[in-house]
Structures are given as structure tokens and as C-alpha cells.
Design a protein that fits this description.
The structure is a single chain. The chain is an all-alpha fold and about 190 residues long. Helix content is about 80%, strand content about 0%. The protein has helices at about 5-15, 30-35, 40-55, 60-65, 70-100, 105-130, 135-160, 165-190.
């Protein structure tokens, strides 16, 4: 059962994605709302599970033999997700004052966290269709890249609406968030042989 606050935030994230700025009014920007927004990861888990299941299923046979066990594979992905979920908010909190965003930091994190659910859904759908053989892998990869582009633009708009700043600042923050995710993913792949 989705709580009314969660439902409102998810609708707000979807509305903002669709270009309706009034969607921002659906978010709870209180201190409780800030901490509650980290619970959005629970709504990401089904999409995450689809992605991990398909990734596991599509691993080459030699990786299945020499790579990590199923348990270690899933554990590495869960650890990656968890660390990725908190790392950018922690780093940004440490530098918020220097970046001049201390007053709007919490609002950005609230919207970013809930918007992550919206950003996770299309990739999971592509993975599911590819995993079921309904979408050729090459086309799925191209479609996935296009979706990433759309989601980066969405994230850019979130930064602009909550933190403001110059286009360079917005692009830099979006780029830093993406780079951090890629670095963490690479580290976990190396550590666990995924």
C-alpha cells in the first residue's frame, strides 16, 4: 500500500517529468519529507530486480562459469544500489555551503529521490522486453541510451527548478551524479567480478 505522501510525491515527479511545473507542489519539503524521500528506494526495488534478473540471464556462458555466484552477483548489485542512493546526497551535503545551495539542498534531494522512481521505470521496461526476447538486444541498447538522454535532461530540469544556478552548474551536477554512479558500478564489478 502506497502512503498518501508517497503517492503525492510520485505523481508530482511524473507531472514534472511531463513538463508540468506545478508537480513540484506535490512534494513534502519539510524535514520529515526530506527523510521520507529516501524511502523512495523501496519503489525502485521492483525495477531494480527486473534489471538485475535480466542482466544475470544475459551474462555470457563463460562469465556464468568463472564469474561470481548468483548470491554474490545480486549482493554486489544491492550494495551498489544502496551506496549510490546515499553517496551523492552525502557529498552534496558536505559541499552545499561552498556551492551556495545550502538553503535549497533539501528540496533538491526530495525531488531527486522521488524522481529516481520515474527514471527507473523505462529502463526496467526495456530490460524486461529484451529479457523476454521481445526486443532485439542491439535495439534495446540503442533505446536504453535514448532513455538515458531523456532522463539526464529530466535531472537537469530538477536541478534548475530546485537549486537554480547557471546552465554550467546544472550540467556539472548532473554529470557528477552520473559519473559517481558509473564509478561505483565499476568498483563493485571489479570487487565482485561481476
Amino acid at each position: 500500500m502506497i502512503s498518501p505522501q508517497s503517492s503525492s510525491a510520485l505523481i508530482g515527479a511524473l507531472e514534472f517529468f511531463l513538463g508540468r511545473r506545478e508537480g513540484l507542489q506535490r512534494f513534502d519539503f519539510s524535514l520529515d519529507g526530506f527523510w521520507r524521500s529516501f524511502g523512495a528506494i523501496l519503489y525502485i526495488l521492483p525495477f531494480f530486480a527486473i534489471n538485475v534478473a535480466v542482466e544475470h540471464r544475459l551474462r555470457p556462458p563463460e562469465v556464468m562459469v568463472t564469474g561470481p555466484s548468483d548470491f554474490v552477483f545480486v549482493l554486489s548489485r544491492l550494495l551498489d544500489l544502496g551506496l549510490d542512493w546515499v553517496m551523492m546526497p552525502l557529498l552534496l551535503a558536505a559541499f552545499a555551503r561552498n556551492l551556495g545551495i545550502a538553503r535549497s539542498y533539501a528540496s533538491y534531494i526530495v525531488v531527486r529521490n522521488w524522481a529516481s522512481v520515474v527514471m527507473s521505470a523505462p529502463q526496467a521496461l526495456i530490460a524486461l522486453l529484451a529479457g523476454l526476447g521481445l526486443l532485439p538486444l542491439e535495439f534495446a541498447a540503442i533505446l536504453s541510451l535514448a532513455v538515458i538522454g531523456v532522463m539526464l535532461r529530466y535531472h537537469y530540469q530538477i536541478v534548475g527548478a530546485t537549486l537554480g544556478g547557471s546552465p554550467a552548474f546544472r550540467a556539472g551536477l548532473v554529470g557528477a551524479d552520473l559519473a559517481l554512479s558509473l564509478v561505483l558500478s565499476g568498483v563493485f564489478s571489479r570487487l565482485f567480478g561481476g
